[in-house]
Fold these 2 entries.
Entry 1:
Amino acid sequence: MKIRKQKQRLVGSEAPAVKLTMLNGEEKIIGMMAEKVQVMITLPFSDSLSDTLAEIIKKHQDKALIYTISPNTLLNVMDEAQSSIDFYNFTFKYGVNIDESLCHKAVFIVNKDGEILYREVIDDAKDDFDVNSLDKALDEAIKFKKKGHTHEEWMSV
């Protein structure tokens, strides 16, 4: 088997588009420009979704597209239309794949323009995300308003 080198996706870089099959059978392309902020959470085991992470998902799910991606169906699936076990291609493209059956615990927040705003990759699967930083970053991403040219700036040209 040939080992391919994964590309690390860093804050400020463009998020790669990935096609996923959700648990409800629907196919979605995620990671590119979208009408809402996107959050992609990779979880290595069926029991990796902590109560604190679930609370953050519930808090923001109406204002962001939040996806959980795992090699196995999560014990506490939040929404089958937003959850997938089609993990390999996604985790490889985002640089968090371990092998054909395992991935790192990671979260990526992608703005409406398809840029990665926040990234957290956990080395030890027993550890949890920095939920305070994640919650704050997600809240800021959702509230962000892109500034255009004001009338005054345009008139001074």
Entry 2:
Amino acid sequence: MEKKGVGKFAIRVWGWPTLLLCLVQWTLMAVFTLTSTDSSKYFLEPESGREYLFESILGFFFVCYLWILVSRYSVMTEKKLSIIAKWGTVFLTAVFVLVSIGNLVRYLFKG
């Protein structure tokens, strides 16, 4: 039986996107660490605009990562992706958008 290196857990499907996500996350953390104030006690001050911005950017990268995995799996295999995986990705994207909007509204109108 010939090994093609393609399947749900094949390194060809998720290896490079995962490495890229890790490097982007480290870069984002480095930028936020280097731009923090000296008087700051934390990497990101709780309930600050920087925290919401960091969470939004990182969440966007994770949602993109999910879509990249779904598309790579669909392109690299002859098998169809399960309906649970497709709709799970759509559901997680919708939840991310709703939570991001909620966080923005909460930050703007907090008293």
